[in-house]
Design a protein that fits this description.
disordered N terminus, single chain, mainly alpha, 18 helices
């Protein structure tokens, strides 16, 4: 079997520097992807600590563990960190690592630009968090930072300026990385890798990066408007610019939800197919639904503004509910893949299966708040907090962990502990639902979001106590995950491990055809590209007697 021309190494180049210098100056897409994913995980753990502080404050009525201003800073940086610095960059970093491997490319397009994107993101994350070190603390006006509350009159702190700079840098960085992934998927495919032979994950990255390129500049424009308003607060004396900012922000703010969803949905699809022992069901329909979903995502932003009186409610409600159609196609694909399969319940499969019902709760409650008559009641209540976290944690984060457990052997060349993985899974399932399910009831009963305490007579105490117990369970689960990863990496560094097979799961896609970890140019004469005849070329080989050896 010969190597496709696109996968052959080019002319000899000077050897890349080693050690830490090799990592910070690398143009290897795999290293850039790992830097992005690793930084995202660090930010996720840091933002989780902030969440525990908030939950501790809300455990009992009239609590004074932290005061109002610090609480405002905690929820602002927690929300900003999880969206701008954790879930979104992780999704793009996963694409940076995997897409060239899945399409048989030797490298990513514009690698130096990709590296620049990572460093802009990493510097932005540090700058945003550095606001806590300023005299008046970090930014305190929410991850959305509506004017006029976020202007220099009401938020004069340096921490607010650092928040703007940090978010701007991180957004530009993710935008550059997204452009590189899209260019790679469209223009760097190996011979035989037609568009309709690309894996579901690579297709999800195309849809994701289209939304990044289409929507993220709107956030940059909103941040520029905020800077102008902070320099001249009279700008926000007119409601035109206050509402204009909201339109700019939410034109970004809704598509970014799907940027934090599509890659994790597709990771779940890959896991379900492999551990069901069959091809992904409804491949073409799912590809079409991803593209339709991405297009529709650019038309629904106004449902975040129903209660402003400045949005056309009927139109935005119609487009929001229309998302049910492509979402339903994707769900049928997931369920159809599992039905009739020979299921193997390894840790990646457990996370993938839990994703399906938990994200469904987030999706269905999203349709509820996309209906004006319900949104008027639920707006700015804990119902919205519960909905958001069922989307991004009960849904996307479970897809994230399915991806980590699935691809970790490929990335690191060593397996994660199955026992610790199961502990992590069950603690996360229990903690997620104990934490966020009570918030639906709290919101329905009238508890507003973004309040640092509540009176004893409100009746909110028991459900908040239950949510805090759930948060502690989540913390225990995340500790098990951290121990699992660090222990596996330590064993590898000391040589006290059995190397993982190149394909421990019986994968379907091209990344499993190369060594673990993959070599610098991805494929070699020892690990060549197999014939590409469908979106599951390795499954094709195994189903043809005599060709899979």
């Amino acid at each position: 079997m010969t190597l496709a021309p696109e996968a052959r190494t080019g002319p000899a180049r000077a050897p890349a520097p080693g050690g830490w210098l090799g990592w910070v100056t690398t143009t290897d897409h795999k290293r850039i992807g790992l830097l992005t994913v690793g930084t995202s995980l660090v930010m996720m753990f840091l933002m989780g600590v902030l969440a525990l502080l908030m939950r501790s404050q809300l455990t009992f009525p009239d609590e004074r563990l932290v005061e109002a201003q610090l609480y405002n800073q905690l929820f602002t940086i927690h929300g900003s960190g999880m969206i701008y610095m954790a879930m979104t960059p992780f999704a793009i970093g996963l694409g940076v690592y995997l897409v060239p491997l899945q399409i048989g490319a030797p490298a990513i397009a514009i690698p130096r630009t990709t590296l620049l994107g990572y460093w802009l993101y990493a510097i932005g994350a540090v700058v945003m968090v550095a606001g806590f070190a300023t005299p008046n603390g970090a930014h305190a006006d929410g991850w959305f930072s509506y004017p006029p509350m976020a202007d220099s009159v009401y938020s004069p702190s340096v921490g607010s300026d650092l928040w703007i700079v940090g978010v701007f840098l991180a957004t530009v960085g993710v935008l550059l990385m997204g452009w590189a992934v899209l260019w790679t998927a469209l223009r760097r495919r190996a011979r035989g890798m037609t568009m309709l032979r690309m894996p579901v994950f690579s297709w999800s990255m195309i849809a994701t990066c289209l939304m990044v390129i289409g929507a993220f500049p709107s956030l940059l424009a909103a941040l520029v408007l905020l800077v102008v308003g902070r320099a001249d607060p009279s700008v926000f004396a007119s409601n035109v610019w206050n509402i204009g900012y909201q339109h700019l922000f939410w034109f970004y703010g809704h598509p970014v939800v799907y940027v934090m969803f599509f890659p994790y949905l597709a990771a779940v699809a890959e896991v379900l197919a492999v551990f069901s022992g069959r091809r992904f069901f409804g491949y073409k329909g799912t590809v079409l639904s991803l593209l339709a979903f991405a297009a529709l995502s650019m038309s629904v932003w106004g449902h975040h503004m129903f209660t402003t009186g400045q949005a056309t409610n009927d139109y935005y409600s119609l487009t929001s509910i229309s998302l049910l159609i492509p979402a339903g196609v994707e769900y049928f694909g997931l369920i159809g893949t599992v039905l009739g399969g020979r299921l193997v319940f390894r840790v990646p499969m457990l996370f993938a299966l839990a994703f399906i019902p938990q994200f469904l709760i987030g999706g269905l409650t999203g349709i509820m708040v996309g209906t004006p008559v319900i949104d008027y009641h639920a707006q700015d209540s804990y119902f919205v907090v519960a909905h958001l976290h069922y989307v991004l944690f009960a849904g996307s984060a479970f897809g994230l962990f399915a991806a980590v457990y699935f691809w970790f052997p490929k990335v690191a060349g060593v397996m994660l502990s199955e026992r610790l993985g199961r502990v992590h899974f069950w603690l996360l399932v229990a903690g997620t639902n104990l934490t966020f399910l009570p918030m639906f009831a709290l919101g329905y009963e009238g508890m507003p979001r973004r309040v640092f305490t509540y009176p004893g007579w409100s009746g909110f105490g028991p459900l908040n106590l239950l949510a805090t117990c759930g948060a502690a369970t989540l913390a225990a689960g995340m500790t098990a995950f951290a121990v699992n990863v660090l222990w596996a990496l330590r064993k590898r560094s000391l040589g006290h491990h059995d190397p993982a097979p190149d394909d421990p799961w019986g994968g379907h896609t091209l990344e499993w055809a190369t060594s673990s970890p993959p070599p610098p140019m991805n494929f070699t004469p020892e690990h060549p590209l197999p014939p590409i005849t469908s979106m599951a070329p390795l499954l094709d080989l195994r189903q043809r007697p005599g060709e899979g050896t």
